[in-house]
Amino acid sequence: MGSLTSAPVLRLKCYKNTASILKVPLRWSSTHLKCSEKLLAQPADHTFDYLTPTPSHLLNITLADILPKECYPSGFNTSNLALPHVPFPSKESGPSTHPQIPQGHHLVYFSPQVLGKDLLSDGTDPLQSPGPPFLRRMWAGGSLLYPTNKSQQLRSDRTRSTCRESIAKVELKGTGTDEKVFVTIDRHITKGSEDVSQDFDSKNVAMLEKRNLVFFQEITPEEASERANRPGKILTVPSKFVPDIRVPITPTKTLLARFSALSFNAHGIHLDPQYCREKEGYKNLLVHGPLSLILMLSVLRNQIGKNIVYKFDYRNLAPLYVDETMNVCVQRNQEYLDSKSPKQRKYDVWIEGSGGGFAVKGTALVGPLGESDEFVYDSIDEMSESLV
């Protein structure tokens, strides 16, 4: 759990556009190529939000029914669900006196600012869509990178903050009807940023996130029906994965509906079972990718005490369905040792689906929360490379 002089802390001396990457095989048509070039040419999207305690508190209430109390964030309990009082920031009460927003809860802030009439037919926003025929969107995975010092953490101090989102990479994979488009998104969250034309202030960088979305081709109703009734593949969990803790969770329709509302997400695969079966080829409602991430971070929090996550990488491998019990598992990686940062620890975190196989697989680098910001990144490019 990295020493205060060796763990990576986010500092940006300058802000430059991350290099965009387009990887396409020769078979990709000019229409597809033009669409992808258009995606990469899009200007960065800036979303502002006030870091009030309400979204995080409502998320805690939403998760309270399915998580054991040992996995609740510090300060939350079900005996008193009233919104906690949070004083306005002042010179006397610095930012460190305000509650830290639990790691992962940023996913219910900075919602996409899109009118309902502008959503796509599946309820998703069009901001990263490559267009027809790749209209079936799924969350494939991603990475989170957090600062290690106390002053840069996201806190519920009512600060107006900024999320800068840009498309970093577009890739076509597969052949024929199995062709799919992967879109990689870079998100940079800063505290107190107003002028989006200015470079990031290193002292205000709160986190970096990389999201990987995959867009599948449309399918016919007949194909959807066949897929919905097809037994799912089970990805065997290797024998080396023996959890220190295993938490069974059964997601409900209420959970999915509430999380959809909190994240401003109208995607039909989480809300409409008929749409799932007849349009997407899934047997029932799907658990959100970001909700799976929050559940993994919540169970991990139970294992790391007062430490925090520095970096978290994860991949979604198989669907998770409503009303089917999953198991969130955490195992400390005993083989990991960083001689320069002996306090750092590495954890394997994964979710097993109802059939017992891998559904989500992640790794976390964990260490103490400190004051030092001596070791830093010099640019967005360098920082982004650590998330690849």
Q: Which topology does CATH recognise?
A: Thiol Ester Dehydrase, Chain A
Biggest pleated-sheet summary: 11 strands, mixed
Low-confidence stretches: 1-19, 373-380
**CATH hierarchy class name:** Alpha Beta
Q: How would you characterize this protein structure?
A:
Strands 1, 2, 3, 4, 5, 6, 7, 8, 9, 10 and 11 form an eleven-stranded mixed sheet that branches. By secondary structure, this protein is an alpha+beta fold. Helix 2 (54-64) runs antiparallel to helix 4 (253-262) and helix 3 crosses helix 5 (273-280). It has helices spanning 30-41, 54-64, 221-228, 253-262, 273-280, 289-304, 380-385; strands spanning 21-23, 45-50, 134-145, 160-173, 180-191, 205-217, 245-249, 308-316, 326-332, 345-352, 358-367. Strand 4 and strand 5 form a beta hairpin. The chain contains seven helices and eleven strands. The model is unreliable at 1-19 and 373-380 (pLDDT under 50). It has one domain (21-385): Roll (Thiol Ester Dehydrase, Chain A).
Write the layout of secondary structure elements.
Elements: E1 21-23, H1 30-41, E2 45-50, H2 54-64, E3 134-145, E4 160-173, E5 180-191, E6 205-217, H3 221-228, E7 245-249, H4 253-262, H5 273-280, H6 289-304, E8 308-316, E9 326-332, E10 345-352, E11 358-367, H7 380-385
Parallel strand pairs: 1-4
Antiparallel strand pairs: 2-4, 3-6, 3-8, 4-5, 5-6, 7-9, 8-11, 9-10, 10-11
Helix pairs in contact: 2-4, 3-5
